[in-house]
Structures are given as structure tokens and as C-alpha cells.
Amino acid sequence: MSTIKAKVPAFEYLKGKEFTEKLKEVTNCATYDLLADYFGVPRSTFFTWHTHNRTGFELIIREHLKSGASVRYLALGEGKPFEDKAAPAEGLQTYRLVDGALIEAGRVSLDLSTLDRFGLKPSITKVIEDDSGIYYLNTESVDPVAGDYLIDIDGRLSINYLQRLPGKKLAIAFGNSTIEVSEEDIKVVGRVAMEMRKK
User: Fold this and answer.
1) Cα–Cα nearest to 60, from 86, 33, 39, 83
2) Phi, psi (rounded to 5 degrees) for 191
3) Do residues 115 and 186 share a domain?
4) Separation of alpha carbons 77 and 87, rounded Å
5) Which three-class secondary structure state does DSSP give residue 35?
6) How many Cβ atoms from other residues are within 10 Å of residue 143's Cβ?
7) Furthest C-alpha separation in the chain
8) At a CB cut-off of 8 Å and minimum separation 6, what does 30 contact?
9) Which of 107, 124, 135, 192 is deepest in the core (most CB within 10 A)?
10) Is this model's pTM higher than 0.70 or not?
């Protein structure tokens, strides 16, 4: 019996630790514990793959569908992990605004093309979350004209709508009321360039 030669022969897939290191890279997981939590698999799975030189093809598909990571990069180590337009921002630090102070709350990734669309870059973006949603701030935008800004009043932070007025004055909205202050009375930390609201 003759064997038909494959028109699409098997590739030389990455295996074992070489493969799992690629997974860590594209997911921004610094450790195997974080990688296990990320995919919801036991940490021992990765060490089994290391020992037996295995490739987790299903995780390649899952990560590609989630983030757009290159299948060729994950499976073969070829090319770039992401197309430039789909590259995720490095995990941006997030903060919760609690009683006028920012408290570290974790990290979030967002693709660079989305940030760019709103005039943001990872280096100038501050991410703040509260019970209503997530706010992406441009920390270079500190000279307010009109819009929502993160402001510092006597060491207490809040996000408020600001409107510039004649005479170096600012109108600040607090709920249903508005007060007028001199621009020297507050410090503007950044402008809300993008927000994700909960429904």
C-alpha cells in the first residue's frame, strides 16, 4: 500500500517551555501562576508540557480569538506576536477612586489602536474605575477648556465637569450644582478622554 505524500506537511511547532514562554509573553503574565489563572488551567499542566515537550494548541486558538495574537508566532515562533494595529497596550495600572484618593486596583490591557483613536498612549494614560465604569485619562491634558477632568482640591481627588470662564476662572460641576473657582485653586491631573460605562 502506497502512502500519499502530504500536500500540507506538519510544521515544526514550538514545544515545551519554548511554547509556554511565548504564551507568557503575549498574555503579559510574568509567572506560570498568573498564566494558570489567566487560562483557568492547573499550573501543573505547563510543567507536564515542559517534561513531555508538548504544545497546547487549544490555548493558541483561545488567545488568538481573545486578543488577536498571531497563531504563527505562538505555534512556530515566527513573525510578530501582534500586528501593529492590534497590539495590546502593556498592562495599564488601574486605580479605584476611594474617598478622594487613588488606590491601586489591578491592571487592564487595551489594544493600541483603540488608545490611539482617542489620542492616548500607554505612557500618558491613567485608568480609574468606580462603580459606574472605567475612565481613561490623558495626563498631558491639564489645561482645561470643557469636559470631564480628574482634579485635586486640597489633596482630595475627584472627577468633575469643568468649563473655562473669562478671567482665569473655572466652573466646576458637583452633582446638580456648579461653583466658580480661580484656576489656581485646583490642580488638574488629567482629562477623561474615553470612558466605559456600566449599564
Assistant:
1) 39
2) -105, 140
3) yes
4) 16
5) helix
6) 9
7) 93
8) 24
9) 135
10) no
